[in-house]
Amino acid sequence: MGNRALDFGQFLRWNGGAGGIFEGVDAPIIRRAIAECLTEKQRKYIVEYYFEGLRIPQIAGQAGVAKSTVSRTIKRGRKRLENALRLAMRG
Fold it and tell me: Would the pTM of this model clear 0.85, i.e. be above it?
């Protein structure tokens, strides 16, 4: 993730608004979950899609992969991140 700032408004929109898994989660916990719980590709594609505003065809073109590969990778990464945040919020 490097120095890229996370746009938490995008996170909330990603989650469908208030009341979702990200509501009430501190930014450092979200950053840590992204850094530690996602694969390198999941992290890269999620940051590019949700925080940099790139579209799936753009990401696929830059990575040299099919659009469906990017879509599936983002979906798996999102699920992994949601599970990690659920566990973090229990603790």
Answer: no
Given a cut of 60, whether residue 75 has pLDDT beyond it is yes
List C-alpha distances in Å: 16 to 6, 35, 67. Answer: 17, 22, 23
| Residue 38 to residue 87: CA distance in whole angstroms | 15
Contact (Cβ atoms closer than 8 angstroms) between residue 9 and residue 53: no
Architecture of domain 8-90: Orthogonal Bundle (1.10)
Spell out the domain ranges in the chain: 8-90
Local structure of 26: helix, strand or coil: coil
* Most confident of the following: 32-36, 74-78, 82-86: 74-78
